[in-house]
């Protein structure tokens, strides 16, 4: 751990939309089947925002739950980082919208975009603020409304994504728990295999979106699968090496929830028990940056984690980006 202060997770929270979109519902929208989706992805259903509901509403609920668990008031937050690729607006940022909603009048706020690796990146940034003494308490919220950038006529991608928000409060710890090591990386040269255009579109962007919907996610699934299969296991090993630990020391792995076949591939490479790789993919789909913090909050709700447990958090995503964190659990 670098810096003067160790950083631990003091509270978790999450929020999913009420509306469920099942594989059987998708059969009525696009040419697909429950069997095809389940076999290739491991997903049965996903949550989607109702029309007119801002993603910031999910973020606020998740943030309030995390603060309640941590036992802190909004006014004591020094910083809010929102990880998202689907903000309600470019300005104000999602983080500023969250700040206003919860009344965190003393907090700085900014958004961070590392796609599905966003929570790992945000955790790493927040830890640096706390380690150096620049902040004492930081709220990290990962929130996505991916249903709003999904091409529902593209059966290769529309079956994958869901909406949701997860949050953690980070603060100083002095009991040997907390973040032990982090690593982040990027492979920008491969960025073209997962894209979501904003104000500029290349000719390739237009060609791969035949339905005329410009601001939608497009993905070369085979390229992303190959990247993820290499990166997830490698990232776990690298971050554990930085912490001077091994896979055998781990109690849990919390991976980004992209595809069950990717999780199974990582499990084989790491030779780690599948029942210790937490997954909610079956009922949430891929929530991009929100996947890992939502999983953490579910594990807390189920009393699966105990203080001192060693966790590896690992993700990959658009950019392309990747990263992992080794953390000794701080919450009782």
Question: What does this protein look like?
Answer:
This protein is of the alpha/beta class and about 325 residues long. It has 2 domains: about 5-175, Thiolase/Chalcone synthase (Peroxisomal Thiolase, Chain A, domain 1); about 180-330, Peroxisomal Thiolase, Chain A, domain 1, CATH 3.40.47.10. The chain has helices at about 25, 35-40, 55-70, 95-100, 120-130, 205, 220-240, 260-270, 280-285, 290-300; strands spanning about 5-15, 20, 45, 80-85, 110, 135-145, 165-175, 180-185, 195, 220, 250-255, 310-315, 320-330. The strands form 4 sheets. It has a 5-stranded mixed β-sheet with strand order 1-7-6-4-5, with helices on both faces. A 4-stranded mixed β-sheet has the order 8-13-12-11, sandwiched between helices. The protein has a two-stranded antiparallel sheet with strand order 2-3. The chain starts with 5 loop residues before the first strand and ends with a strand. The relative contact order is 0.20.
Which tags fit this structure?
single chain; 332 residues; alpha/beta; Peroxisomal Thiolase, Chain A, domain 1; 5-stranded mixed beta sheet; 4-stranded mixed beta sheet; 10 helices; 32% helix; 24% strand; globular
Describe the global form.
Answer: globular
Main sheet characteristics: 5 strands, mixed
User: Beta fraction of the residues?
Assistant: 15-25%
State the distance separating the first and last CA atoms.
21 Å
- List SSEs in N-to-C order: EEHHEHEHEHEEEEHEHEHHHEE
Assembly of the depicted chains:
single chain
In CATH, the architecture of the largest domain is 3-Layer(aba) Sandwich
Q: Residue share in helices?
A: 25-40%
| Radius of gyration, taken over Cα atoms and rounded to an integer in Å | 19 Å
Structural class: alpha/beta
Q: Domain count, please report it.
A: 2
**Can you identify the CATH superfamily of the largest domain?**
Thiolase/Chalcone synthase
Please provide the count of β strands.
Answer: 13
